[in-house]
# Entry
Amino acid sequence: MTEINTDKLAEAFVSALAIDAAEVTDELAYSQHPKWDSTAHMVLVAEIEAAFDIMLDTDDIIDMSSFAKAKEIVAKY
Amino acid sequence: MRKVLTGYAIELIPVTRENFQLLREWRNQDDIRAQMGDTALISAEQHQAWFDKIEHSQQQLHYIIQYKQQLIGSINVRSSDGLNLTECKLAEVGLYIATPEYRNNMLAFAPSLLLNDYLFEQLQIIELKSKVRSSNSAALKYNQALGYQLTPIADDNEFIEISLTADNYKKATQMVKRLLSRNRSN
# Structure
């Protein structure tokens, strides 16, 4: 697993979910934050793909249910 | 008509004599029962009688949702105009995700996408219509994301009518369909 630029990933979350940077912690989770719904999730996928120049697989899009999980997933690519 | 449907990372497996008991377990879970029109517990006898009635019905189809070899919930469709599903124009879809981790997840869209594609494209159904508890904001939001329009029901504050045409469905689901139709990693 490669190390990823966590700041860049956090920026993608801030932009896609329209939240404050302080809210981006490992505990930030899909549907537990009012702004991380299905629409925001789709924007988030696009932001992450553009930031890291990757294309996520469907299973990873489904599994990406928290910021902590997103770090693991992006590190695989 | 009773065949496995595959797509969007899942399979919809028809309910059969071999697997139908699982539906009673799920349906009687407190969290699922609370969102049903009839919230009463289902007895083994009632469940058997229900299965005997729907097993060969041409007016309803019931599926179990499978993701990565795990059975995670159920989806069904019933004709609403008294005709067989192959001829009907108006139908009602019902869904529940029994596995909590997939309830608030993109995966929850997959069974609706797979079944709705089949209903609109193969069976040529014109409109899907059903009722959702007004208090179930997650379900209302979910259905709106699929393109459903919400209509309050006169003299009924407990439920809201939701309806979906093929056009509205197609417009609302282009992005989510693309995301759930990519390569699989595991």
